[in-house]
Amino acid sequence: MSLPKIKTVRAYFAGGATADKAAAGGDYHDQGANHWIDDHVATPMSKYKQYEQSRQSFGINVLGTLIVEVEADNGQIGFAITTGGEMGCFIVEKHLNRFIEGRCVSDIKLIHDQMMNATMYYAGSGGVVMNTISCVDLALWDLFGKVTDLPVYKLLGGAVRDELQFYATGARPDLAQKMGFIGGKMAVQWGPHDGDEGIRKEVARIAHYRETCGADFWLMLDCWMSQDVNFATKLAHACAPYNVKWLEECLPPQQFEGYAQLKKQAPQGMLITSGEHHGTLQSFRTLAETGIDILQPDVGWCGGLTTLVEVAALAKSRGQLVVPHGSSVYSHHAVITFTNTPFSEFLMTSPDCSTLRPQFDPLLINEPVPVNGRIHKSVLDKPGFGVELNREGLKRPYHH
Ligand SMILES: C[C@H](O)[C@H](O)CC(=O)C(=O)O
Ligand SMILES: [Mg+2]
User: Which residues does this entry assign to the site Transition state stabilizer (predicted)?
Assistant: First the structure.
C-alpha cells in the first residue's frame, strides 16, 4: 500500500521570554496575572524569598510554546504543541528536519529512534530537547492519523474502556467535586524552608478540604520537586489522617534513591508518584525501580507518544500504574488504550478554577473538556488527535 511522504516540517513558537505577551497554550504556565498556578506554589526556588510568591518570577514561563507542523506530499498536515518555544524551533529546523523530510508518513519509529540517538550528546534525560522530540513525534502521529483517516487511539490498537474518568488539578477541590471529577490535586504552597509551620499550614488546607468534600473524594498533593526526603516523609504522615491519596513529585527528578527511601517511609496505603519531568525510557526504568506507585510521564515532554507507549508497557510489566501528566488529547488517545491507566488528569487552566477552560486554550480548536468528569471515547473519533490549530500570533524564527 502506498502512503504519502513527508514533504516538509515547520516549527513555530508563541509566548515565552522573546514574545511581547503571555501566550499559554502549550506552555500552560505562561498565564496572565492572578492565576492560581502562579500563586505561591512551592518550588525548588522557594527558598529564595524573592522567588517565593510567583513561579513566573524565576522564569517558569520563559520557554513558551513550540508548535510543530509536518506536511505530506499530498497536502495533508499534522501538528502538535508543547512547551519549548523558540529554542525548540531551532532544534527542529536546524537539526531534526533531516530525519523527517522525505520519509514515509508511517516511518514514526524510525524517525523517533534517529531523533533520540542523534541528540543523545546534548539532550539529557528531560528538558527542552526531549520536549521538542515529543512535539515532532506527536505531529507525526497526528499526520499518520489524518492520512489514514483514523483517530490515533485506533492506530495504537483501540480503546480498552468506553470513557476516561478524570481528577482535577487546581486550587479548589470543592469546585472540582461539584463538576463531577473523582478527585482534586492541589499544589503545595510551603516547603522545607518553612519547617514544621509549613507542614501545619499544608495540613490545615487538607483538613479543610477533607471536611468540605467528605470522606471519599480523592485529595492529592503535588510538590513540584520542592522537598527533601525528611520534609516529604513528615508531610506524608501528617496528612495521613485526612486520607491523602498520593504525594506527587516531592523530590527533584534524578533523586532516585530519595524516591525509593520516601516510598519505604511513607504511610501504608499512601501512594508516591512522579515522572512528569522525566524523559527517555531509560529514565523511567530507573524511576520505576524505586518502587513508587504511579509513573506520570508528560507525553509532550517524555519523548512523545512513542516513548509513552513504551513506558506504559514497562509499568504494566511491574504492576505499576501510568497516569500521564495532564496533556489533553495527546494523552487521551494514548491512555484509552492502556490497561494500567484507570483514571486521568485534567489540569485546570481557568485562573480561579471556577470554569472548565481547555488545557491548551487558546491554541487548540475543538479541544474536548470532561463532562461530569468524563470523556467518552466517541469524542475522540476524529482523524489524528482531532484538534485544529489556532494560528493567530505564531512566529517562525528559523527556516531550512
Ligand atoms: C500544579 C503543579 O505545580 C504544576 O503546575 C502542574 C503539575 O505538576 C501537575 O499537573 O501535575
Ligand atoms: Mg505534577
Answer: 345
C-alpha–C-alpha distance, residues 323 and 296, integer Å? 5
Task: Identify whether the C-beta of residue 311 lies closer than 8 Å to the C-beta of residue 295.
Answer: yes
Q: Are 55 and 38 in contact (CB under 8 A)?
A: yes
CB-CB contact of 216 with 177 (8 Å): no
pLDDT score recorded for residue 317: 98
Tell me how far apart the alpha carbons of residues 242 and 210 are, in angstroms, rounded to a whole number.
Answer: 6
- What's the rounded Cα separation, in Å, for the pair 201 and 365? 40
Closest ligand 1 atom number to CA of residue 347: 10
Catalytic annotation, pick one of 112, 278, 325, 332: 325
pTM greater than the 0.90 cutoff: yes
Judge if ipTM > 0.85.
yes
Q: Omega of the bond prior to 151 within 30 degrees of 0, cis? A: no
Ligand 1, atom 11: closest residue by C-alpha: 325
Count CA atoms within 13 Å of residue 4 on its CB side: 19
The label of the residue with cell 532516585 reads: 256
Q: How far apart are the first and last CA of the chain?
A: 31
Mean pLDDT of 120-140: 98
Dihedral of alpha carbons 383, 384, 385, 388, sign: negative
Grid coordinates of 238: 501528617
The string of pLDDT tens digits covering residues 222-262 is 999 999 999 999 999 999 999 999 999 999 999 999 999 99
Length of the chain in residues, anyone? 400
- Taking only the tens place, the pLDDT of each residue in 296-311 is 999 999 999 999 999 9
Q: Is the pLDDT of residue 20 over 80?
A: no
Which residues form the pocket of ligand 1, taking CB atoms under 6 Å from any ligand atom? 37, 41, 169, 187, 222, 224, 276, 325-326, 345, 347
Q: Which residue has the cell 507525553?
A: 299
Going by the DSSP 8-state scheme, the letter that residue 210 receives in this structure is H
pLDDT at 323: 98
The 8-class DSSP code of residue 192 comes to G
Helix, strand, coil abundance in the chain, percent, nearest 5: 40, 20, 45
Nine cell digits for residue 147? 492520512
pLDDT at residue 355, as a whole number: 97
Q: Residue 1: what pLDDT?
A: 80
**How far is residue 126's CA from residue 284's CA, in Å, rounded to a whole number?**
11
- Cell numbers representing residue 259 in the block: 524516591
Euclidean distance between CA atoms 14 and 340, whole angstroms:
35
